[in-house]
Design goal:
Blueprint (H helix, E strand, L loop, with lengths): L1 H26 L5 H6 L5 H11 L5 H13 L13 H36 L4 H15 L2 H15 L12 E3 L2 E3 L4 H34 L2 H8 L4 H31 L1 H7 L4 H11 L2 H29 L7
Antiparallel strand pairs: 1-2
Helix pairs in contact: 1-4, 1-13, 5-6, 5-8, 5-10, 5-13, 6-8, 7-8, 7-11, 8-10, 10-13, 11-12, 12-13
Length: 321
């Protein structure tokens, strides 16, 4: 197990370097931040002075090396747009995104797994057919359209919920949460539903397919022959052996939600990382974009490591590899 963890940690470092290198190479073609900072009326001398101050007069490889040196100690530079440390900006936006992703993932698991189990055990029932039809709609409809429909119904027509923002939050150390206030919990409802609809549909179909395949296997027939109850066969044996691919997909989806919750955060003006990176791209804020991509790469790598560790507990056969 220790060898596996060390190998994965080595992969994390490699992923971080590759992502940072690619981001610096791509960002050279996204525009000149000097123009955005000084405007069109700045003199050539002012532009050259600012370029030297920001280190943009140096070759890309030198800029990349300086970024890596600072990033090792947690210093990602200063945001061109906000004139604040990038690490401070990311930490201030991180709680909003993680809270949104956590709630959406939890809701998807609590709804998607039971729906998938029911559809696997009673595939021809009218309830299963209804679930499958709903899941097809959830997979097919774009995320931004779901968000706008929820805003139209619950914010514009019914006026039950706020159409934007995070509501009132509570500060706990450096962490901010809206789960402890009424307005914060209400503000979470529509963004969480928007993010979780696709996840619920995907998890339901995945659990249904995997569980139906497991129920046809020989060890399930042997378990029934031993006289085990249906509950034990379905939940202890069939469902448990269906969870490995579910864990893989859920782990990857958590990383994807953190990285690509941009659409949802833009629709609801959610003050998270997605909205931050949209503003950084518009302003050619290279330090924020580079730090964001490095953070996303680290997140994916750590999530994959966590999934591998969970495998070891669910499937004992993997401990011998």
């Amino acid at each position: 197990m220790i060898t596996l963890v060390l190998r994965r940690l080595g992969s994390v470092l490699l992923v971080m370097l590759v992502v940072a290198g690619l981001s610096f190479w791509i960002f050279n073609y996204l525009g000149d931040p000097v123009n955005n900072i000084l405007g069109v009326n700045a003199t050539l001398e002012e532009r050259d002075a600012l370029r030297v101050t920001l280190g943009l007069d140096q070759p890309t490889i030198v800029q990349f090396w300086h970024f890596v040196e600072r990033a090792v100690v947690g210093d990602f530079g200063i945001s061109y747009r906000n004139r604040l440390p990038v690490a401070e900006l990311i930490l201030s936006r991180l709680p909003a995104t993680l809270e949104l992703v956590f709630c959406a993932t939890l809701l998807a698991l609590l709804i998607g797994i039971p729906m998938g189990v029911y559809c696997a055990l009673r595939p021809k029932g009218w309830v299963s057919r209804f679930f499958q039809m709903v899941s097809l709609v959830g997979i097919s409809v774009p995320q931004f359209l779901i968000g706008m429909l929820l805003i139209l119904i619950f914010a514009v027509e019914l006026r039950w919920l706020s159409a934007f923002g995070r509501g009132e939050t509570v500060q706990i150390g450096w962490w901010t949460t809206g789960l402890l206030t009424d307005t914060g919990r209400k503000a979470l409802i529509m963004p969480v539903l928007t993010l979780s609809v696709f996840q619920i549909s995907m998890i339901m179909r995945l659990v249904q397919g995997e569980m139906q395949e497991v129920l046809r296997s020989d060890f399930i027939k042997f378990a029934r022959a031993r006289g085990l109850s249906d509950r034990s066969v379905h939940l202890r044996h069939a469902l448990r052996n269906s969870l490995l691919p579910v864990i893989t997909i859920v782990g990857l989806q958590i990383g994807s939600l953190i990285a690509f919750a941009i659409v949802c955060e833009a629709v609801f003006q959610w003050p998270g990382l997605g909205l931050l990176i949209l503003q950084a791209i518009e302003y050619a804020d290279f330090p924020v974009m580079a730090a964001y991509l490095a953070f996303v790469g680290l997140g994916f790598a750590l999530i994959n490591l966590t999934v591998d560790m969970i495998y070891l507990f669910i499937d004992p056969r993997m401990r011998r590899k």
